[in-house]
Design a protein that fits this description.
By secondary structure, the protein is an alpha/beta fold. The protein folds into 4 domains: about 5-155, DNA polymerase beta, N-terminal domain-like (DNA polymerase, domain 1), CATH 1.10.150; about 160-245, 2-Layer Sandwich (Beta Polymerase, domain 2), CATH 3.30.460.10; about 250-325, DNA polymerase, thumb domain (Beta Polymerase, domain 3, 2-Layer Sandwich); about 340-575, Metal-dependent hydrolases (TIM Barrel), CATH 3.20.20. The protein is built from 25 helices and 17 strands. The strands form 4 sheets. The chain has a 7-stranded parallel sheet. The longest helix is centred in the N-terminal third of the chain and has 17 residues, at about 5-20. The N and C termini lie far apart (about 60 Å). The structure holds 2'-deoxyguanosine-5'-triphosphate, calcium ion (CA) (2 copies) and zinc ion. One calcium ion (CA) binds near residues 188, 199, 201 and 244. One calcium ion (CA) binds next to helix 12.
Length: about 575
């Protein structure tokens, strides 16, 4: 039996769905995508589930029917399955690669393969450069695709935090399970919760370094050892990322962790500060001549430099050392402190699950409330709601609220902002809701003046409580639309409109630097998952990480409030909100 991880199984199922989509098969693409998401977020290793309960056990996974269960069994036995091989042979296109390029959907991918033999991004680049692309898709689309390719190039090989944080956490856990390991943590950009990640840096405390390294290089997630030393090893993981592991003795743990957490800019500033005080800071500790003043914990190191502990998320050398010296560090919003999720899509539009299912799952995760915010009619491809269907949805929510104890479902909307800044729903419909989010989903190419005016116009609507994913960027895929963020933030303050931190991994929107501007201006924030599936509801703390990187405190974030307090704020006329 192959010891495949849930991610590996999910990846192949998802790819199979995309291959079906490429062939124009109905229904299957969606079903496979859904099953893949369930497999990836399944609480137990699929291998173990299969060992325990056989093929029947696999069908307990939501969305997995006999067909997909059969594929999984085959995969566990042989590493692949016949259906996948057949599809891949018919259309040997790397869909996972191509889908990273904006404006390349399944139809285009198929046409490009049939007419030009394009199988991956590298082929696509050649086709674009030679002008052949334009002959197939037309000048306009070719231009758009070329822009998508450029954007992909500049965003490089970095991974999105939310896509790799679970993996980093699992490797930490696996390291901790190795006999003799006392501590294992991930340092570097992951510990700082930076929005994209180059590589993993693990710091391990153990007495017998070599024994631990021997175990580490044999982890099932490791495909290649790049450097193998007694205390420092670099490997390549199955997902293509590199991971460094350093093994240290306990009495230098704090200094090593501090050093390898970074950022480099923060470390350089901290070393300069040490030098000014006649001291020397390196990865072995803080030194006065040959005497080591501190090294055991990070707190010890900062304290010996006359500083309070500085949270990793704000170690960027953007004023944190000055704030620390002045005793003015923010008390960052704690993880787990957001009580309710205010952007959730359901099967009323493009979400995968019912309102009830999303509520149940949110409750399981410890949330006290959610807002249901399905799309509106202008977003026709999602089946966006009109005023009448929104009212019907409201009646379903009323009925559910009667059943639920200690949990509240708020009525909301992700209402489209039309090109001129008007809202896609009439005022009466908006007024009937508890929480109105407004989003841009069209006309991305307006000039900065027009786009800024459009968003500000939306904020002037007395019923719009929040602007969702304010910049519209998709990391590695689509740049933000042109927007004068300072003007938007000032208008948010003036109109009593909140701005969202959308925690969905490839959105992360607002981003850290905007959050910091918002906090300075006293603009209220909301942290949401933008969940389209129950498994997305767990993203909330990724949004908290962005808030922390933007120096936000609990008071800056509206949905850290209990539901009663939140509703009081929402019912206050916008210009009187504090
Ligand atoms: P990444 O991997 O690109 O997402 O970003 P980091 O911050 O994880 O960078 P990485 O893996 O190259 O190094 C981990 C940490 O080690 C980094 O945040 C700070 C420390 N470090 C690495 N190189 C230097 C250096 O040349 N000078 C100083 N002061 N620190 C360094
Ligand atoms: Ca790193
Ligand atoms: Ca590294
Ligand atoms: Zn949506």
């Amino acid at each position: 039996m192959k010891r495949l991880t849930n991610e590996e199984i999910a990846e192949k199922i998802a790819e199979t769905g995309q291959l079906y989509e490429l062939q124009g098969v109905q229904f299957k693409p969606r079903a496979y995508a859904r099953a893949a998401e369930q497999i990836e977020s399944f609480g137990q290793a699929i291998v173990d589930l299969y060992k325990e309960k056989g093929e029947k056990g696999l069908r307990e996974i939501p969305g997995v029917g006999p067909g997909i269960a059969g594929h999984i069994v085959e995969m566990l036995k042989t590493g692949t399955f016949a259906e996948y091989k057949k599809l891949k042979k018919a259309i040997p296109v790397d869909v996972r690669d191509l889908e990273r390029v904006e404006h390349v959907g399944p139809k285009t991918a198929l046409a490009l393969y049939k007419k030009l033999g394009v199988k991956n991004v590298a082929d696509l680049r050649k086709a674009a450069a030679s002008g052949k692309l334009a002959k197939i898709v037309g000048e306009t689309t070719a231009e758009k695709i070329s822009k998508g390719l450029d954007f992909l190039k500049t965003s490089g090989n970095r991974e999105i935090l939310g896509h790799v944080l679970p993996l980093a956490t699992r490797i930490e856990e696996d390291l901790r399970a190795v006999p003799g390991v006392k501590h294992a943590v991930v340092a570097g950009s992951v510990r700082r919760r930076q929005e994209t990640i180059g590589d993993f840096d693990f710091i391990v405390v153990a007495d017998d370094a070599e024994a631990v390294m021997e175990r580490f290089v044999k982890f099932s997630r490791v495909v290649q050892t790049i450097e193998h030393g007694p205390t420092m090893t670099i490997v390549r993981l199955k997902n293509g990322m590199h991971a460094d592991v350093r093994i240290v003795e306990g009495d230098a743990y704090g200094a090593v962790l501090q050093h390898f957490t970074g950022s480099k800019e923060h470390n350089i500033a901290l070393r300069t500060l040490a030098v000014k005080r006649g001291l020397k800071l390196n990865e072995y500790g803080l030194w006065k001549g040959k005497k080591r003043l501190a090294a055991r914990t990070e707190e010890d190191v900062y304290k010996a430099l006359g500083l309070p502990y500085i949270d990793p998320e704000i170690r960027t050398n953007e004023g944190e050392l000055e704030a620390a010296k002045a005793g003015k560090l923010p008390k960052l919003i704690p993880y787990g402190s957001v009580r309710g999720d205010l952007q959730i899509q359901t099967s009323w539009t493009d979400g995968a699950a019912s309102i009830e299912k999303m509520a149940e799952e949110a409750k399981k995760l410890g949330r006290a409330y959610i807002a249901i915010t399905d799309h509106t009619k202008a977003l026709a491809m999602t089946g966006g709601l009109d005023e009448k269907r929104l009212a019907a949805q409201g009646r379903e929510i009323d009925a559910l609220n009667k059943k639920l104890k200690g949990f509240t479902i708020l009525k909301g909307s992700e209402c489209d902002i039309l090109k001129d800044g008007r809202m896609d729903l009439d005022d009466a419909a908006l007024a009937s809701l508890d929480f109105v989010g407004a989003s841009i989903h069209s006309h991305f190419k307006l000039s900065s003046e027009e786009q800024t005016a459009r968003v500000i116009q939306a904020m002037k609507n007395p019923y719009v409580d929040c602007i969702f994913h304010p910049t519209g960027r998709l990391i590695g895929k689509r740049p933000p639309y042109e927007l004068d963020m300072l003007a938007v933030l000032k208008a948010a303050k003036a109109t009593g409109t909140a701005l969202e931190i959308d925690a969905f991994p490839n959105r992360s929107d607002l981003r850290d630097e905007h959050v910091r501007m918002a906090v300075k201006l006293g603009v209220k924030l909301v942290i949401d998952t933008d969940a389209h599936h129950p498994s997305h509801l767990g993203y909330l703390d990724l949004g908290v990480a962005i808030a922390r990187r933007g120096w936000a405190e609990k008071k800056d974030v509206l949905n850290t409030r209990p539901v009663g307090e939140l509703l009081r704020w929402l019912k206050t006329p916008k210009t009187k909100r504090r």
